[in-house]
Amino acid sequence: MGGLLKFLRIRTARIHPPMEDLVGWADGTAHPGTDRHLERCAVCRAHALRIRYASQKARDDEIGAGELSALTIAFERLQTRMRAWPGTRQRHARNPVHARVTRTIEFYFGRVAASRLVNASGGKEPERHLVLVMKPMFSAFLGAAAADALVKQIAGAEC
Amino acid sequence: MRAGPIPKAWIHAESVPRWILRGILLLFLLALTSFAAWWRTGDWRWMRAFFDYPGVLFFVGCSLLGLRLSYLCWRQFAPGDAIRPAWLLIVLFASSQLAGGVLAHLLGSESYLNPLYYLPSGPALIRGASSVGRLFSPISMLFLAAGLFRVVRICRKNGVLAGLKTFDFLLLGIVTVYTTHYLTAVVFSSQHPEGPVTAGKIVTWMSDPLLCVLLLQAILIRRSAANMGWGLIARCWVAFTAAIFFTSVGDIGLWASARSAIPFGLQAASWYVWYPATACFAAAPAYQLQAMLRATHGAVYDEDLDTVGYQTGRGVWPSHR
User: Fold this and answer.
1) What global pTM score does this model have?
2) What is the DSSP letter of A99?
3) Count of CB contacts below 8 A, A vs B?
4) Of A68, A79, B144, B299, which has the maximum CB count within 10 A?
5) Which residues of B touch A46 (CB under 8 A)?
6) For residue A110, what are the β-bridge partners?
7) Which tens digits make up the pLDDT trace of B237-270?
8) Neighbours of B130 (CB within 10 A)
9) Residue B82: CB partners within 8 Å, gap ≥ 6?
10) How far apart are CA B37 and CA B34, in angstroms?
């Protein structure tokens, strides 16, 4: 029986909790199961700690402090909020300042992703900064060269 | 990658999904005609005429197109891009699919399109081509599963991977039950109903477990795409998901038909479900190519977006205006 429990523990450690649970853990509202998983799983623990770090940064609303670059922090902050966002199709009013970026995001990734971006940025980020923040996402799915071209086009259109 | 004049092949790639849709509509029209003729006359040659000629041409044509477009996508990524290995695996998948399609459907059928049909030793060669062609199905699935695994990892890394819902578990449960039943009834049975066990048979038995894995990956990617709101990149992965779903339906349909477990109408529908699956496999890299083309060559925002009709995909390129 003990062996079976040990086996199950090893097995269940490999079933990782969703990002929402990790965000919950970072905010201190985690399910006990998530705590147990994080005790055993180093990968998820690292993710959860990064989320907690990014959340704290978001709360402090300061960019540039610490060992991470400003863009990395901003991207993580957006990722954190995007992960925590419930998957609803609710529409959100758009900031007209971000229209070009959100339309590009909408075109490539979809309406919900664009809405999340606007909501996550809270209308505070300059448009060019938003594009740079989203560049890793474009790079992941379109490749670095296409992402560079896209950022240049948007920056060129802004000038 | 430099934003220069739009390559001609890419302009064609832009209209590929529409051509695939038109192609499949025409194919289904032909299918309906041949089915109606067979139903009315009872002459099976009507059905064979459809499956051996337009059916085979569509299948091989779509596989060829899918390979070409996947290769173009892969070539656009630079070494070091996270998704490049996934596209290499998709190229390998498309190559195996084409090889399997040519061997099993073109060279493995007794039709006038088959050059082996005119040879004196034709029947033996045709049987051999058909058997070898079937081996490519699990091989291609293996490549696709490996490629989609990398895509799922990229989705997770970028925080866009969604969780499974109740319906997903239900769908996966059905396919898993079918696979388990198939394995127990055929693979692990002491008396193999499909004759003696050969290496080729063992390879083909991998198809169903691989299909379960593919379906899980496809559902995860589809949920993630839906969670983002169906952009152009999402459409590429949703096309793969649809293709895998159609393949699963076709596979289950074949199994159920063999056991007369489903009514004739559903059996007949399962004969045709492979065509939309093939079409979706070809459309997926076309969407990716569209996304890369637009990123590299402009036409992404402001009035351009409205002009190209980004929501419907029915637009014109700036160079065409």
Assistant:
1) 0.71
2) H
3) 119
4) B144
5) none
6) B230
7) 889 989 998 998 888 888 888 777 788 888 888 8
8) 16
9) A139, A140, B150, B154, B157
10) 5
